[in-house]
Amino acid sequence: MDDVKVDMSGDMNVPKTEPKSQFDFSTFTQFQKIPSPMELVQLTRKYIRPWSEFLNTGNFKAAASMPRLTSRFVRNLDYFKSNYIFVFIVLMIYCLITSPLILIVLAGVAYASNKIRKAQAPVSVFGHQLSPAHQIMALNIASVPVLFLVGAGSALFWTLGASCFVISLHAIFYNIDAIVTEDTEGFLAEVV
Q: Where are its TM segments located (predicted)?
């Protein structure tokens, strides 16, 4: 075999980069991919299953074994996920209606956020300019202790607990095999 020589000499300029901080705060308020609450509701409504099917008492049966129960639980969570989101929303609305102080604080924060958003005027605090997005963020952070004082923490955990309980009961006892077979499950997911 002949020896082959390849010339690999040359100059390479490596561009200098500034060390970046761990977290870039300038992009913190620029979440573009988070949908608005109305878009979330519309997306959830698009994939909701019929309520007559969801509440059909003829399909509630105990599972024969533990593996079938876990399979049923996972399949029900996947099949009825939009219905379960609406169950959570209804329980949250019920909790807000029965806790008027929380409702008053949330309405005040929403009103103040709307006023800040419409004004579009930067505010100077201790020599620093705060954009409207930063003002709204500061308002939301300042409202957390007030919400805690009026009982929003207990209301939130009550809603989460009640939702998990109701959704788990439905997902455990609803016989998904009565309406969906393994063969048609993929087809139904594509059609919807």
A: 84-112, 156-176
